[in-house]
UniProtKB/TrEMBL annotation:
Transmembrane segments: 6-26
Domain of life: Bacteria
Keyword entries, A-Z: Electron transport, Heme, Iron, Membrane, Metal-binding, Transmembrane, Transmembrane helix, Transport
Name of the molecule in the record: C-type cytochrome
Domain Cytochrome c: 43-127, 167-276
Length: 276
């Protein structure tokens, strides 16, 4: 390639790249409202954004992977924690962990109830933005490194076929990790690893003991029924502890009744009932 050809190639490449850049820019602007739910930006959402900045939340937390990386990414926090949990947590984070043991340093911000509601509305708007998978490996709220909370290692297709198929326990375990929100966002299956929800290790034995005692307040008569009730109506019996409930209402989401089909619920119960 001589100098003239090289010059023409450079000019042509620049023109093509410029056209592609302008086209992608215009296409992005065309989709912004749909991707970001721009029509859902209410006065409360805007106020929540102001609360986020006023309290310097980004000095520790990240949104869309951008921030200080000192504390968890909160891009999808409202998909992992319900409003009741987030409200109670922001009112007094110290109730949710032992600072001397867990070494978490979330300060009590003394935010008003109105501003807490606005901040949750802002975070909920953020959680519904179509971020197209970015960041590719977001920081989890809890437990990515806790035993029993990380995704299982990949298994060869032959082994996977032998252990799953129509096996309701295997299908239930898959749901445990993939439901919305994923059960692993709040529960571990490792003994003693309590997160936003209690560890599910030994669930069957603890459930049987609960049903046999006088403290149970629900309507179940056997362990499978109790597990099913806990998924569908988590406040039927509230597990004691400020981390798990407030004012008699469990922090566990109440959406599984409509988000899981009867077949999926049966599979999930089958898996949970295998946690002896």
């Amino acid at each position: 390639m001589n100098k003239r050809q090289a010059r023409h190639f450079a000019i042509g490449s620049t023109v093509v790249a410029t056209i592609a850049f302008l086209g992608l820019t215009l296409d992005s602007h065309r989709q912004f409202n749909r991707l970001t739910n721009g029509d859902k930006i209410t006065a409360q959402v805007t106020r929540g954004k102001d609360v986020w900045h006023a309290n310097n939340c980004i000095n520790c937390h990240t949104l869309f992977g951008e921030g200080a990386y000192y504390a968890p990414d909160l891009t999808k926090i409202t998909k992992l924690r319900g409003q009741a949990y987030l409200t109670a947590y922001m009112k007094d984070p110290s109730k949710f962990y032992d600072e001397t043991r867990h070494r978490r340093l979330m300060p009590k911000q003394d935010i008003s109830d109105t501003d807490i509601a606005a901040l949750i509305a802002f975070l909920d708007w953020v959680s519904n933005v179509d971020n197209q998978g970015w960041p590719p490996r977001p920081l989890l709220v809890t437990g990515a490194t806790f035993p029993g909370t990380d995704a299982p290692a990949a298994t060869p297709p032959a082994a996977r076929a032998a252990t799953s198929g129509d096996n309701p326990i295997a299908l239930g375990e898959r749901l445990f990790r993939s439901a919305t929100p994923a059960c692993t966002a709040c529960h571990s299956t490792a003994p003693g690893v309590n997160m936003a929800g209690p560890s599910l290790a030994g669930l069957v034995g603890r459930s049987a003991a609960l049903l046999a005692g006088a403290s149970y307040r629900g309507k179940a008569t056997d362990v499978d029924g109790y597990i099913r009730e806990s998924v569908l109506a988590p406040s039927a019996h509230v597990v004691p502890g400020p981390m798990y409930s407030a004012d008699g209402q469990s922090f566990m989401p109440t959406t599984y009744a409509k988000d899981l089909s009867p077949e999926q619920l049966t599979q999930l119960v089958a898996y949970l009932s295998s946690l002896k």
